[in-house]
Design a protein that fits this description.
Elements lengths: L21 E4 L7 H12 L4 E3 L6 E5 L3 H11 L8 E3 L15 H10 L4 E6 L6 H4 L4 E5 L4 H10 L3 E2 L14 H8 L5 E4 L10 E5 L3 E6 L5 H11 L4 E4 L19 E5 L3 H17 L4 E5 L1 H6 L7 E4 L6 H17 L4 E5 L8 H12 L4
Parallel strand pairs: 1-8, 2-8, 4-6, 5-9, 10-11, 12-15, 13-14, 13-15
Antiparallel strand pairs: 2-3, 3-7, 4-7, 5-6, 9-10
Helix pairs in contact: 1-5, 3-7
The structure holds adenosine monophosphate and magnesium ion (MG).
The site of adenosine monophosphate (AMP) has 19 residues, from strand 6 and strand 10.
Length: 366
């Protein structure tokens, strides 16, 4: 999305000690208030708690405590110029972090909250600069996952929470993924089973006269456009930032350890291209892997020595989103050196978000 070279001058310090990470099982449908109370106490005293949401696992801290927010950046080794999303228990608390809420934001919040939509709005001074990477705007969302909701409501503070993985790597969709990346670096993980959507929230900047979709995500762009148009037929709907630089939208992100090649274009041509590339890899003795739909794996079944991971039935973007990050981690674990994926055929539902993540995970498209 953004090919501008970025400077990582602000890379945080590496941690030189480990802490004990407590893992607590929790029922995602009916979270135990006792477990939630323990996690909320950790957040209130400035600690870090990873928790399931309807998108991916989040790594939460008190958004109004600059030291706690600093710990998120240190644990993830996240670049300081990549702002965090602030999570609220309900839309009524919006005024505690946003200084203006344009009518279009009210309409979008009414339509999609609680849920996987993030709104970028003018920020209140109470939100520390560390949360917003020094920007005058703040990204806000009200999650619908019962564990996320209960944790934020019980903590009684807005919770800043990026995805619970090391910076630039594949987002965590299970507690095991969180521990793989952040074990020994954070205070607690609430294990509520796999995250629901598997893909992050849609990020939308809201202005008086229109919106910009900054990051495609779990709320499809077409659903956002519909609500905006209904609220204000004259409103403009763009994709990408109005400002020159969109923070955090660096080319390389969501990356597996293996080298990922993402092939776009018509299906038959894409399959032929993958067949040729994978045959080359296998001939050179490298462990190549296919990350494709069931039908596409079937079409390339002759590449038998290749490792495979299924994204589900062809055209089922919901299943593909849920499996995407877990499949990339699994292929890493199985020793894949190169992974090949092809673009969704239609850009509906989660497809735009899947395409965005694969482009950036590959940071190289054929
Ligand atoms: P995540 O890493 O999933 O927590 O997503 C955070 C992303 O939200 C950042 O990388 C930005 O792309 C976007 N974001 C957060 N705050 C802002 C902001 N104030 N303005 C624009 N985009 C933002
Ligand atoms: Mg992230």
């Amino acid at each position: 999305m953004d090919a501008t070279p970025r400077l990582y001058a602000s890379t945080p310090l590496r941690l030189n000690h480990t802490i004990e990470t407590e893992v607590l099982a929790i029922d995602s449908a009916a979270p135990d208030p006792g477990v939630i109370a323990r996690a909320a106490a950790v957040v209130r005293r400035g600690g870090l708690v990873a928790f399931p949401t309807e998108t991916v696992y989040g790594l939460g801290a008190n958004a109004l405590d600059a030291d706690a927010v600093g710990r998120i950046f240190a644990a993830k080794e996240r670049a300081a110029d990549d702002p965090l999303i602030v999570h609220l228990a309900d839309a009524g608390q919006l005024a505690t972090v946003a200084r203006e809420v344009p009518p279009l934001a009210v309409a979008l919040a009414a339509a999609f909250w609680p849920g996987p939509l993030t709104l970028v709005l003018p920020k209140r001074a109470e939100v520390p600069a560390a949360v917003t990477a020094g920007l005058d705007s703040v990204a806000v969302r009200v999650p619908r996952h019962p564990v996320a909701h209960a944790l934020i409501a019980t903590a009684g503070v807005p919770v800043a929470a990026p995805s619970a993985n090391r910076f630039t790597r594949t987002s965590a969709t299970t507690a095991a993924h969180v521990l793989e990346d952040l074990g020994g670096r954070i205070d607690m993980v609430l294990d509520g089973g796999p995250a629901e959507a598997g893909i992050e929230s849609t990020v939308v900047a809201v202005y008086a006269d229109g919106v910009s979709v900054l990051r495609p995500g779990a709320v499809p762009t077409e659903a956002i456009a519909e609500v905006v148009q209904r609220a204000d037929p004259a409103a403009t709907i763009r994709t990408g930032a109005r400002e020159k630089v969109s923070p955090g939208m660096m080319a390389k992100h969501y990356a597996p350890r293996a080298r990922l090649t993402y092939v776009t274009g018509p299906r038959e041509a894409a399959l032929a291209r993958v067949r040729a590339l994978v045959a080359e890899e296998l001939a050179a003795g490298r462990r190549a892997a296919l990350l494709l739909s069931d039908e596409d794996l079937e079409a390339l079944a002759d590449l038998a020595p290749a490792l495979t991971a299924s994204l589900g039935p062809r055209g089922d973007h919901t299943t593909a989103a849920r499996r995407l990050f877990a499949a990339l981690r699994e292929l890493d674990q199985r020793g894949a050196e190169s992974v090949f994926a092809i673009a969704p055929e239609t850009m509906t539902g989660y497809a735009r978000a899947i395409d965005d993540r694969l482009r950036r995970a590959a940071a190289r498209v054929e």
